[in-house]
Amino acid sequence: MSSIEKLELKxxxxxxxxxALLEGEELDEIAKIISMDPNLSAKLLKFINSPYFxxxxxxxxxxxxxAYLGYRNLKDYVFLLLTSSMLKNANKDEIKRTLKLAYLMxxxxxxxxPEHDDEAYMVGILEQVREEIGEEIREILEKAGVSxxxxxxxxxxxxxxxxxxxxxxxxxxxxxxxNEGTEVELPPELSLLSREELIESCLVAxxxxxxxLATL
Length: 216
Description:
Elements: H1 11-22, H2 27-35, H3 38-48, H4 62-86, H5 92-112, H6 117-133, H7 136-143, H8 148-155, H9 160-180, H10 195-213
């Protein structure tokens, strides 16, 4: 494990950064917040210069890194950092499962509730944290300016995102069997999707999780 992978991040800076991203702050303000934590800056530059992006020229500026990533990709990455910073004992297999759920929720949401695919990703990436700390996650996310829709999706299994989360967790357990052609029983929330769509969602989640995991 490299020295960068071992770096501790300041949670208050991550929360401030998430809030700024969700509120659409200017690039310079985003860069200023990232620069408040040298370890966060190091992780971001390591991420952007990883083989995942295949850049021909190394990026050394935080502003350049943000501009290249775009707010959505940066937001996804920061939520992952928040999750991994709160799961102190999580190994790479556990982080991969978290990523797979997040990307699977986004893929399912694109098909079932496309206006909420970003929120679906947030719920998926934070689910393991919720399992560990329960209701405490509400206060943390409120500080970060995360919408009540996302918080409700995490804490209320009867909400739209809550139902999608439970359906995605069930599907995640059956992805291999689906791909093998085995008949499986899935939640009614997924009944509008064809077997092919479900398999494709599983494959995208697997590939996306593996690709991002390789950058950490």
